[in-house]
Specification:
- This is Aminoglycoside phosphotransferase family protein.
- Pfam families: APH_6_hur (PF04655).
- This protein is an alpha+beta fold.
- The protein folds into two domains: 7-107, Phosphorylase Kinase, domain 1 (2-Layer Sandwich); 114-307, Aminoglycoside phosphotransferase (APH), C-terminal lobe (Aminoglycoside 3'-phosphotransferase, Chain: A, domain 2, Alpha-Beta Complex).
- It has ten helices and ten strands.
- The chain has helices at residues 7-10, 17-36, 79-86, 119-133, 144-157, 166-181, 223-227, 242-257, 261-285, 292-307, and strands at 40-41, 46-47, 51-57, 63-69, 94-98, 103-107, 187-189, 198-200, 206-208, 214-216.
- The strands form three sheets. Strands 1, 2, 3, 4, 5 and 6 form a six-stranded antiparallel β-sheet that branches. Strands 7-10 form a two-stranded antiparallel ribbon.
- Helix 4 packs parallel to helix 8 and helix 5 (144-157) crosses helix 9 (261-285).
- The relative contact order is 0.11.
- The structure holds adenosine-5'-diphosphate and magnesium ion.
- Residues 48, 196-197, 210 line the site of magnesium ion.
Length: 310
């Protein structure tokens, strides 16, 4: 069975020449890896934003997932290293890696992921994973501080004309350096731990996949669990207000993860304001105003910033 490249992944061609070049190479790259690693594809490929995932069986007939990632994606460069460090504890087990080709052979996880789980229960699962994933640092990984320093400079550089209440911008700009200055012992941080990046194995145990690993404060981790699946907190099935829903999630994460509530809250504020700033930055770079979905995203960033503090 030849490897199929999903249409949605092929559509990433529009993102630039580096993407096109990788997508051109991808069928050959995948075919070479299958041959060298003695793998046989067993079904249609899956994909994320910047990767191809092929369900395979190895020479012994053991199911696996061959993941090949876009080589221009800096954040996931050390995905294999972090997975190796975790050794299958809290995260999917890595069986083989070729960092140069950005290729990983992972244990097959039949799922489901946490996208359809009750959100508060999902937060408890993810909070419980923090303790297993937040292990002592690896020297190869970039520090969270190196990223955050740059993000705050960029935010500051956007000037005063932002569609975010000024007090929140000021707050993020002052909390960020404080958080970095009195940080607890640094650990490996997953960096992108949300509902779709946690999958069940065939025994129903939950495993993180898809890390964008860094080294830093574990309290950095919760924000994506708040900003993903936000629409269901305001839809017809929502229990209570958006604020209530966000706070239920936040407290479930803090409790299950044994995090310091104030630090976790301050990181959410910093991350949400930085996120809003990026959206403005992207629109300005493209020489246009905010589009409705971008405006909507910024409104959500502000709602989260407010909800965790009220
Ligand atoms: N070990 C695995 N077993 C089964 N499916 C997987 C595995 N790893 C990834 N997938 C599937 O591939 C998708 C994309 O993988 P992911 O690692 O999240 O990449 P991305 O960085 O592109 O989001 C996942 O959402 C999931 O459906
Ligand atoms: Mg993913």
């Amino acid at each position: 069975m030849p490897v199929t490249i999903p249409e949605d992944l092929l559509a990433q061609r529009s993102l630039g020449a580096d993407w096109s070049a990788w997508l051109d190479r991808l069928p050959r790259l995948a075919a070479d890896l299958l041959e060298e690693w003695h793998l046989r594809p067993t079904g249609p490929s899956r994909h994320g934003h910047c990767s191809l995932v092929v369900p395979v069986t190895d020479a012994d007939g053991v199911p696996g997932a061959l993941k090949v990632t876009f080589d221009g994606d800096e954040e996931s460069q050390h995905e294999g290293l972090a997975l190796q460090r975790w050794g299958g504890d809290g995260a999917v087990r890595l069986r083989r890696a070729d960092p140069r080709r950005r290729a990983l052979l992972l244990d097959w996880l039949p799922g489901p992921d946490l996208a359809d789980a009750w959100d508060v229960e999902a937060c408890e699962v993810v909070g419980a994973l923090y303790g297993r994933l937040h292990v002592p640092p690896l020297p190869q990984l970039a520090s969270l501080a190196s990223y955050v320093g740059r993000w705050l400079d960029e935010l500051d550089g956007l000037g005063r004309d932002l569609p975010v209440p000024r007090r929140y911008v000021e707050q993020a700009l002052s909390l960020g350096p404080d958080l970095l200055a009195d940080a607890p012992e640094p650990v490996v941080v997953h960096g992108d731990l949300h509902y779709a990046n946690v999958m069940a194995d065939d025994a129903g145990e939950w495993h993180a996949i898809d890390p964008k690993p860094m080294v830093g404060d574990p309290h950095y981790e919760p924000a994506p669990m708040l900003w993903k699946r936000m629409e269901e907190l305001t839809g017809p099935l929502a229990v209570g207000s958006l604020r209530d829903g966000l706070r239920r999630r936040f407290h479930a994460l803090v409790d299950a993860g044994g995090l310091d509530e104030a630090r976790a809250r301050d990181w959410v504020v910093v991350r949400m304001v930085v996120n809003a700033g990026w959206t403005v930055q992207d629109a300005r770079a493209a020489g246009r105003g905010l589009e409705p979905d971008e405006q909507d995203w910024i409104t959500r960033c502000i709602a989260i910033t407010k909800a965790v503090q009220d």
